[in-house]
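Mods, move this if it's the wrong board.
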Amino acid sequence: MPKYRFEKKYLLNEHTAVLLRSRVAAIMKPDENGGSYVISNMYLDDRIDSFYYANQLGKYSRDKYRLRYYNGDKSFIRLERKHKDGAISYKDSMRITREQYQNMKEGKFEFLLKEEARLLQMLAMIYRLRGLRASSIFSYRREAYVYEPNNVRITFDSPLFQTDDTKKGRIHYEPLKINYGHEPYFPMLLEVKYADFLPETIKRVLNGFPLAHTEMSKYAISRERGVLPYGKT
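Not the wrong board. Structure tokens:
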């Protein structure tokens, strides 16, 4: 059975971000990846942008498919399917090869038809029925903390970055002036994820700050603000 978690997102201004990060760091520990790293994503969508529009229309049940690696290191790439039912979500994931990543980036999806892994078979079905393409590529910096009781995870995500992942071993970052679609400018996105309920210890920390709740999607923002020109890979 998949492990569902609640997921809530908030926009933070610079002052709130600094104070809240210090409070969170005092009671939570950095995640298993060291707490601070750059995440690079390549999102997939079909020819009619079903996943993008499902998000924009606020559909109760929806999916996203993405390929993800960390700190510019393509020796370990994951394919992830993120499924949401309202406020709860779960992820399926598997490791893929650099060659598979490159094939999907270049629009060469035929190899999926011969794969046996469940996630790849799901992509193969979408490819046969509606086509597939790499619809957005972007990166951002994440600072992540965990709290073991009830599997709480709190992350601070910086604004989106443009990325040039054609340079071997390097990624060039250029901050984009993105405010996640809101005014005034909010430079940080806070995500709070937990199973069943949020422990009182964490509630007390969060309740002490003016948090602006949002349903924004980094994928949707990347599409709309041109982190990668539409349809280009």
